[in-house]
Each structure stands twice: as structure tokens, then as C-alpha cells.
Amino acid sequence: MVDGGLVCEGGAITEVFTGEGPVAEPGWEEIDAERRFVLPGAIDPHVQLYPVEDWGHYATETGSAALGGVTTIVKMHRDLEGYDAGDFWAEVAGAEGRAYVDFCFHLALMSDAQIAAVQQYARELELTSFKLFMAYKGEEGYRIGIQGVDDGQLYDAFAAIAEAGGIALVHCENQDLARRAYARVLTSGGDDLRAFAESRPRLVEAEAVHRAAFLADAAGCPLYVVHVSAKESLEGLAEARRAGVRVSVETESHYLTETCDSPAGALAKVIPPVREEEDREALWAALGEGLIDTIGSDHVAASRERKRGSVWEAQLGFPGIATILPVLLSEGVNGGRLSLARVAAVTSANPARILGLPGKGALLPGMDADLVVVDLELERTVDAAMLGSAGDFSIYEGRTLRGWPVLTVCRGCVVMRDGELVGREGHGRYLRRGVRERAAVGS
User: Fold this and answer.
1) Core vs surface per residue 405-415: b (16+ CB within 10 A) or e
2) CATH code of the domain in which 335 resides
3) Number of folded domains that form the chain
4) 160 lies in which domain range?
5) What does the alpha-carbon distance between residue 401 and residue 378 come to, in Å, rounded to a whole number?
6) Is the pLDDT at 1 greater than 80, yes or no?
7) Is the whole model's pTM more than 0.90, yes or no?
8) Confidence at residue 26, expressed as pLDDT on a 0 to 100 scale
9) Phi first, then psi: what are they for 417, rounded to 5°?
10) How far apart are CA 372 and CA 68, in angstroms?
């Protein structure tokens, strides 16, 4: 541990020092980390927020983020009808009136018209990351407000995103394989997480990863593969990297902790599904070795009521934004799998660099004063009520995790202290991302 500290003014870091620091001036607030560890504020690159009255989801879910040491969230923004700039900026204004921490959007491309408008969206909406689905085609997608693209659209989207200087996020699943696997599993009568996992087996993800990497490389487009869950997918991604494909890899914290034997049962239903112990161990190894770049939550403020009954009828997703860091600290650092420096890289430095988030990802002069103080010895038993989400459960309910954030600072404002939300609603700001030079994308 290095003794030292930071000086923050006007929401930015102005000085980093070791040893004795400057003499405090009148009006300064001094925060003593008490020999605990200070990390850059975490970034959750994969968050689902669904519309509720008066933009209230931006208050509850960014409040939950702050409780978990997350100072920036990136929302998956999608609309089958297209993206009107007036409506978009109205949402940004509403969000800025409610959010506790900073935010920005990935924009889903689900039609030819949307793909054709990539340059316009990048310019008018000031964003550079675009989401594509290789699954959820036809009726399956319409039920949840998503439409996947065919391979021709996928390639055209990659080409358009590359031309705009952006990055393509891809949900990799082969729907044709999944449809047949689902039909086979239904005839077996299974109704648990294992049956659900068998309905979208590892092959479904791994094949699509290969195809996405090939097409993105052919189009010259940086690729970001979201929520990787399968050992075979990791093998394909490692192969793509060795071949020179510009690909970034994300997994979610729940794939590091849960398998299809999870005691959470249908509460842990998610797509891609949680899988086997060998997948879980492969993900931890890839995370430690550097193949996996980022960790998201795929957070959904789901209710316990909508998860009841058959696994086939239960709502997808669960709250998770507040438990990314506790999982990595408890199971990663304290579990001997990760260094604290690696945690800082995958939760902050890497997503900031890959997604081009201005002012984020490092504790350096000139950067935003986003930081989190973590106590590696603090033990807490997870209770959904302490996590702040509108979702009323956690898949970790009743589990004790060792290692928690105890202070969260977003642009110089203390938003969480000792497990209590103390920030101001409306402090969060939309991160405007200018289009980068094509040659620099993914560097």
C-alpha cells in the first residue's frame, strides 16, 4: 500500500501525491481513507433501464450504482421505431434531473433504416457505440422489443460503424441452433436452470462469436462481444485475437459466481444462461490472464413476483449493478484469483478506454474525480434492501461477501458513504462522446 492522496477541485483531480500532501485550505473537505484502498470509480458498461414515470429509474438504479462503487453506467438504449433526436435529448434531460452518477448510451441497431443512419446518430446523439443482436429474430424478439439482424445487415452495420469511427457491441447467439435446442428440451419436460441452459447451449454462443469476429474484421470494425458465458467462446475469442482481430471481451459478474445448479433457481434466469462449473472457472482464468477486458451487470430492476413459476415463464434478468465490485473483491481478490490492480483495470480503465468515455478510468490529474474507497476486510450479508434498486431481490440474497466499497465519489461529490446514499439526485451527467478518428478506434 502506498501512502498518499488526491486533491480534487471543480469535479476533477488536480494533484496526485505520495507522502505528505498539501496543507488543507479553508473550505476543503478532507476524507481519510484510513489505510483502505482507493480505486477509480467503477464503470458498468451493460445496464438495462426501462421507462417509468418521471425518469424515476435513473434515480433508483444510479443510486444502486453509487452504493456499489459505480460512478458511470452505460445504458442499452433501443427503440424498434428509430431514434428521434428530440425524444433522445428529452430523455437525457430527464435523466440528468434524476441520476446520482454519470451515464451514457449504447444505441441498438435493429433495422436497415437504423443501420443507414449510423453517421447521423453518431453526430446528433454524440455517441460512438452501437449494439447488434444476432438472436431475437422474429416473434421471439418482438415479445421483448428487440429485433436481431441477419448476417448481411450485421456486415453492413459493421461497415457503417467503422466509417463513423465507432465500436460495435454484439450479442452473439445463433438463433437457428437455439430454436432447435429449445424444441428438444421442451419435450424432455425439464423446468429448471439446467434445462434452460440446455435450451441455449454453449455452441449457440460460440459459433456466433466466430462469425461476428470474422465479419467485423472483414469490415474493419472494432468488435466488443458482450456477456460472454461459455468456455468455447473464450477459445474462439483468443483465436481471433491471435489472428489480429480487434476484439474486446465482456463478461458479467453472475457468470463468475453462478452455475445452472445455482440455489437462486429461476431468479438467476438470464440470456445467455449461467452454465457449468468448467465455464465459471474458465471465465475466472480468462479474467486474470487478460482475455476478458470488462465486467458488466446486465442489470434489470426485475421483481421477484415476475420470476415466480416455471423457468420458461419467468422474466429474464435481475438486479446486479451494486454487486459487481463486492463479487470481484470477495471472490476475486480475497479468493486469490485477481489482484486489486486487475480489478481496477476491468472495472474502470478498460471500459473507459474501449468505449471512449471522456475523463474516466484513471486517478490522474485532469481526470474526473471519480473514485471508490474499498475495505477488503468488511463482511456484509447481501440483502436486496441494502442495494437500493427498484428490483426487490438479489441472486446473492443471504450470502456473505468479504470486500465492499465504503465511499463513492462522482466528479468530486460524495454520493455514498458507509453503505448510505448521500449524494444529490441530479448530480449525474450525460457523457458526450465525440466521433474518434477511425485509425484510433480500439487502440
Assistant:
1) bbbbbbbbbeb
2) 3.20.20.140
3) 1
4) 4-19+33-437
5) 8
6) no
7) yes
8) 82
9) -140, 125
10) 9
